[in-house]
């Protein structure tokens, strides 16, 4: 014990020196381990797997660009009545009627459209016997031009014609080009005639006349003034809504009116 008491400082110093020697011996191993760990960290950063970025959602931006490229349309005429109010029209008897169309002539209504025909009808057959005993037939054909400009030209007019007979003063409408069947048997008889106005060929028999649409007439009404018109044709003059209107066109589905005051045209659609 005396030795320890006398030399305890040396003993402690010895232990400290042994510790330092041990630390110096172990230090290279620690440095190598730290170097390997840092190298692994570096490789993990440089060569590690990197997930790709998710696709950007540009839907909102695309919608904004689309709205900027297309013009924004405002309807102030049909759906919005702030700037275009619905007019009311006063009738001759003092009544007020709502005119949603905003145009007085648009209140006119087409009630009927009738086709106008050019018609050929084989009325009868006349035969005469001559010296050679050949049977010579003359055909009585009625022609009706419903679309003619003058009323006197619209009625039926009979024409007498034979095969090959040229156009003359009494018949300037057609010529008979060909006859099939026997004049004595009206059931089998068919005529082929050439119309002089168009040059077309028409076929007719006693039970089947020929007809061709050459125009239309129209019936109209205008309720605000309790007016009606029957059988109006192109060129007809209609007076209503404080203006004069001319019928400039009629087809199977519409009537077109033109105002005398400003030549503005209005189409009235026919809805049966």
Give a quick set of tags describing it:
five-stranded antiparallel sheet; four-stranded antiparallel sheet; 38% strand; alpha+beta; 272 residues
Q: Would you write up a description of this structure?
A:
The chain is an alpha+beta fold and 272 residues long. It is 21% helix and 38% strand. The strands form four sheets. Strands 5-4-3-9-10 form a five-stranded antiparallel β-sheet, with no helix packed on it. Strands 11-12-13-14 form a four-stranded antiparallel β-sheet, with no helix packed on it. Strands 6-7-8 form a three-stranded antiparallel β-sheet, with no helix packed on it. A hairpin with a 4-residue loop joins strand 9 and strand 10. The termini are far apart.
Helical proportion?
10-25%
SSE arrangement, N to C: HHEEEEEEEEEEEEEE
Strand percentage lies at: 35-45%
Secondary structural class:
alpha+beta
- Which shape, going by the Cα principal axes? elongated
Number of helices in the DSSP assignment: 2
Got a strand count? Answer: 14
The termini sit apart by 138 Å
Q: What does this entry show, briefly?
A:
Helix content is 21%, strand content 38%. It has helices spanning 2-47, 59-69; strands at residues 88-90, 96-98, 109-129, 135-145, 156-161, 174-180, 190-195, 201-204, 210-222, 227-232, 237-240, 243-251, 254-259, 265-269.
């Amino acid at each position: 014990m005396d030795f320890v008491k006398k030399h305890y400082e040396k003993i402690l110093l010895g232990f400290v020196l042994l510790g330092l020697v041990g630390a110096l011996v172990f230090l290279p191993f620690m440095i190598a381990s730290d170097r390997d760990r840092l190298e692994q960290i570096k490789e993990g950063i440089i060569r590690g797997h990197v997930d790709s970025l998710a696709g950007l959602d540009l839907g909102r931006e695309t919608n904004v660009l689309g709205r900027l490229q297309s013009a924004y349309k405002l309807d102030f005429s049909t759906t919005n009545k702030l700037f275009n109010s619905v007019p009311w029209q006063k009738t001759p008897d003092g009544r007020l009627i709502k005119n949603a169309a905003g145009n007085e002539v648009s209140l006119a209504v087409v009630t009927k459209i009738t086709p106008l025909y050019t018609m050929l009808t084989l009325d009868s057959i006349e035969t005469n016997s001559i010296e050679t005993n050949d049977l010579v037939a003359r055909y009585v054909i009625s022609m009706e031009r419903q679309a003619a400009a003058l009323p006197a030209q619209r009625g039926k007019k009979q024409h007498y014609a034979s095969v090959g007979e040229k156009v003359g003063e009494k018949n300037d409408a057609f010529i008979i080009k060909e006859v099939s069947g026997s004049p004595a048997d009206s059931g089998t008889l068919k005529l082929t005639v050439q119309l002089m106005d168009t040059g077309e060929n028409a076929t007719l028999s006693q039970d089947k006349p020929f007809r061709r649409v050459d125009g239309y007439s129209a019936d109209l009404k205008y309720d605000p003034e309790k007016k009606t018109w029957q059988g109006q044709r192109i060129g007809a003059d209609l007076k209503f809504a404080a203006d004069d209107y001319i019928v400039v066109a009629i087809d199977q589905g519409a009537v077109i009116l033109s105002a005398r005051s400003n030549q503005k045209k209005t189409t009235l659609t026919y809805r049966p």
